[in-house]
Design a protein that fits this description.
This protein is of the alpha/beta class and about 325 residues long. The chain is built from 11 helices and 12 strands. The protein has one domain: Alpha-Beta Barrel (TIM Barrel). Helix 3 links the parallel strand 5 and strand 6. Helix 7 packs parallel to helix 8 and helix 8 crosses helix 9. It is globular.
């Protein structure tokens, strides 16, 4: 199976965290040009803002023959989302969040894409006794129902995360993400399984991919790595090698057909080299693991024959 690889356009520009600044300030064209130079990078992703110039973005991508995987709607980066977006106590803020997502849906149509990655990471709480959980979850579900019905042809994929920027994010794990999908009951609402976020939530990413796929809700896969303590967005397979191997095996087994997004932010590593190595790691391991007799492997897994299953894998690695 052939996969398409994507990365964040912002990875090639200026970044900052609480303490340091990284990279260089570059124009849209400069960043797209860099992306076009990376082997096997098929497309890029962009965070959507109201000021995003869709016509210029589309023109620049076409100029450098770079594809486009998706927009990300990050409902935490702007001051208006400080106390939540879809779950804000202020009805005007909730309305603003819904309109922002609808605007991104329109932009997605204009750029000839079909997927939005939705990150409701400003929706949560930092202290106990800070939130009305019943109302917050009700607002979240009702807001998603409205945006999903706006254009059923555009898929909306919820990216769950345990923490950051809020101490506790409502959509914190695969179970809650599936719960939301069940409550909203929209065919175009699905889930992004981010390898690092899954680790951060105490999950096994391979298992999360399986249950999302079984529910027909696996819309997007983001690959990176971390030490399980924070969302470091490191090069895939650089820390949790065996978790990564199992994740790739099940990604192949469930016949995932979407983009593989390199959600890597190379703060202290050269961006071009980091993204190139990320794709190389993933592509190489996929090519190796596709040689495995997955039916035989699955038979061993069903019988809990760990040693035999491991031997089957090790023959190819």
């Amino acid at each position: 199976m052939h996969y398409k690889y994507s990365a964040s356009l912002g990875a090639f520009g200026h970044q900052r965290d609480r303490f340091c600044e990284y990279g260089e300030t570059r124009s849209l064209e400069e960043m797209v040009k860099i992306a076009s130079s990376i082997d096997n990078l098929d497309g890029i992703s962009v965070v959507y803002y109201p000021t995003t110039n869709i016509a210029l973005l589309k023109k620049t991508l076409e100029k450098y023959h770079v594809g486009f995987s998706h927009f990300t709607v990050d409902l935490s980066r702007e001051p208006r989302w400080l106390y939540g977006s879809l779950t804000s106590p202020d009805p005007n803020i909730r309305k603003s969040a819904i309109e922002h997502i609808k605007d991104c849906i329109d932009a997605t149509v204009k750029i000839n894409a079909s997927l939005i990655n939705l990150c409701p990471m400003g929706d949560g709480y930092d202290y106990l006794f800070q939130a009305d959980y019943r109302k917050a979850w009700s607002w979240l579900i009702e807001g998603l129902k409205e945006v999903c019905s706006y254009n059923p042809n555009i898929r909306i994929s919820i990216e769950y995360k345990r923490k950051e920027p809020r101490g506790n994010i409502y959509v914190s794990d695969i179970g809650k993400a599936l719960y939301i999908c069940e409550r909203v009951k929209a065919e175009n609402l699905g889930i992004t399984v981010d390898f690092g976020h899954s680790l951060l939530s105490g999950e096994n990413p391979a298992e999360s991919i399986c249950i999302a796929a079984e529910a027909n809700k696996l819309f997007s896969i983001h690959l990176n790595d971390n030490f399980g303590d924070w969302d470091w967005d490191m090069i895939p397979a650089s820390v949790n090698f065996w978790h990564f191997i199992e994740t790739i095996i099940w990604m192949i087994k469930v016949e995932y057909k979407g983009w593989i997004y390199m959600d890597v932010y190379p703060f202290r590593v050269d961006a071009i080299k980091a993204i190139s190595q990320s794709i190389s790691n993933v592509k190489t391991l996929i090519e190796i693991l596709q040689k495995i007799d997955l039916d035989t492997l699955q038979a061993e897994l069903r019988d809990h024959n760990y040693v035999r299953a491991l031997k089957i894998i090790l023959k190819e690695i």
